[in-house]
Write a structure and sequence with these properties.
18 helices; globular; mainly alpha
Length: about 500
């Protein structure tokens, strides 16, 4: 048999010449093996490598080219941090003061769901590293349709993932647009022939249309809009804290848009729903140069993710102490108008980033070839506007469905994928020795088998790994069954009026 080599590890020849002979392979299965990394290899020699070992260099280049042409291309560390933080400071956070929870209950709920959000982000991070793919679509395909002979299943799954992701993002954008209109509509004169809601929706949609024309999140306009959205939230937070101190804190909007689920714990759960985790990880790795001796610390995705969650908790947790249900005085009209403007700006300026990352509609190829007009992009925008002006009875049900979908996509789907790929699928890689031993050769007894210190270190390492694996598995199963499954059952029962 020819000798096979591994580019990622090397083992001393004595390790494979040690142990007692076996009738099967010439080894003693109890012999200690020591894995020594190559001295020439650095941790960043393949800093952007989502390709598996059996993929060609051309396929790896295609993945990198696909990333560069995607709506989330390689981004700087600051931009990645921005897009990791921004989704937390949106509608869910605005609803925390009127969630109706006690102070202790509100604080505990914020901390728990912030921890769960960080945990699910880490699951996505580990899944992306494990399958070495740069987006959710490829992770799902590697989980449920890996290997050859599954082309039809892969095509169906690809379309289902695109439809699910696209639908959720369009629905969230429509909800944000609708709620923005709800915030500022009471302060507009109702003297026009057409309904004020329709006019206001069209005006706001036209206002953010130039931002939506950008091609990716790397656009300067999208970055500025995202930063302005975070700034508007900070201004709203300041106004809310002032109104709480004065005893004039009231609900942010008297709206019929939101359904039964948008109170209490579900609203806080929606606050820490995440977007773009895997693409942002890929975009961050895409900015690291392969020949860089050591990347900067700020190019660590785990650090940026933890930092974004920490700042989000700091920006949301104080709201759990505010109570908008029992104001002792009525705020002035100017204060209510100011708060409403910051509410609307916080949500409105985040819509372009959400819609830009929405997968394109499946326009027939002949139509796409016949024109250079961005038909899919325009249709997505028109659909978003249309959904935002539906009757209130439909938007209430729709808002509950949006919350359930966002909850499942954040807390349930990553746990399901992790459990499936690690418990019901074959390992992606099997480590083999770089050389094949000769069973006929005479083997000397292994000195490492009699090294008590080495054996003790090995047992300690195995216990630590076993402990981490058990904690990890328990956490994922808890995330899937009690939290994901229990939350879904409760939400459906709540919508059906069972409790």
């Amino acid at each position: 048999m020819p000798t096979t080599g591994s580019p990622r590890s090397s083992t001393s020849s004595d390790s494979f010449a040690s142990g007692r002979q076996s009738p099967l392979n010439g080894f003693d299965s109890s012999a200690a093996l020591i894995l020594v990394p190559d001295a020439e290899e650095t941790p960043n020699s393949t800093s952007f490598d989502f390709s598996s070992d059996d993929e060609t260099e051309e396929e790896s280049d295609l993945q990198l080219e696909r990333l560069r042409n995607s709506p989330i291309p390689p981004l700087s560390s600051l931009s990645v941090f921005l897009y990791l933080l921004a989704p937390y400071l949106k509608l869910g956070a605005l609803l925390v003061p009127e969630a109706g929870l006690s102070k202790k209950g509100g604080v505990l709920t914020v901390v728990v769901f912030a921890a769960l959000s960080a945990f699910t982000r880490h699951i996505w991070y580990m899944l992306a590293r494990y399958v070495r793919r740069s987006d959710l679509e490829e992770i799902v395909l590697e989980t449920f349709a890996r290997g050859r002979g599954n082309e039809r299943r892969r095509a169906v799954l690809r379309q289902l993932v695109r439809l699910s992701v696209g639908s959720l993002r369009v629905l969230v954008a429509a909800l944000y647009l609708r709620f923005s209109v709800d915030c500022i509509l009471p302060f507009l004169p109702d003297v026009l022939a057409l309904p004020s809601r329709l006019i206001t929706t069209l005006v706001l949609a036209a206002f953010i249309a130039p931002l939506y024309s950008a091609r990716s999140l790397d656009s300067r306009g999208i970055k500025y809009a995202s930063w302005l959205s975070v700034t508007a939230y900070a201004a709203w937070f300041s106004c809310t804290a002032y109104m709480h101190a004065e005893g004039t804190l009231i609900p942010i909007a008297d709206t019929a848009t939101l359904g039964k689920l948008w109170q209490g714990i579900p609203a806080i759960a929606f606050t820490f729903c995440t977007w773009w985790t895997v693409p942002l990880y890929a975009s961050l790795k895409g900015t690291v140069q392969p020949m860089t001796p050591k990347p900067r610390r700020l190019q660590s995705f785990k650090l940026l993710s933890a930092l974004s969650v920490t700042i989000a908790v700091a920006a949301v947790l104080p709201l759990a102490f505010f109570d908008a249900s029992i104001p002792t005085a009525i705020p002035s009209v100017d204060m209510k108008r100011t708060v409403a403007a910051f509410n609307a700006a916080t949500l409105l300026l985040s819509i372009p980033a959400i819609l830009i990352t929405t997968p394109a509609l499946p326009i027939p190829i002949p139509i796409r070839r016949a024109t250079n007009f961005p038909l899919s992009k325009v249709l997505i925008y028109l659909i978003t506007i249309g959904l935002s002006i539906l009757p209130a009875s439909m938007t209430r049900v729709g808002s509950d469905i949006i919350l359930i979908l966002a909850f499942l996509s954040t807390y349930t789907i990553p746990a399901l994928l992790h459990i499936t790929i690690h418990n019901f699928r074959r390992p992606l890689s099997i480590v083999i020795p770089p050389t094949t031993p000769n069973p006929a050769a005479r083997l000397e007894p292994s000195d490492s088998r009699h090294d008590e210190l080495l054996q003790r270190k090995e047992r300690t390492l195995q216990r630590r790994r076993l402990g981490r694996r058990l904690i990890w598995d328990v956490g994922v199963w808890v995330l899937l069954v009690p939290i994901g499954g229990g939350g879904l059952v409760w939400a459906v029962g709540r919508m059906a009026g069972k409790w």
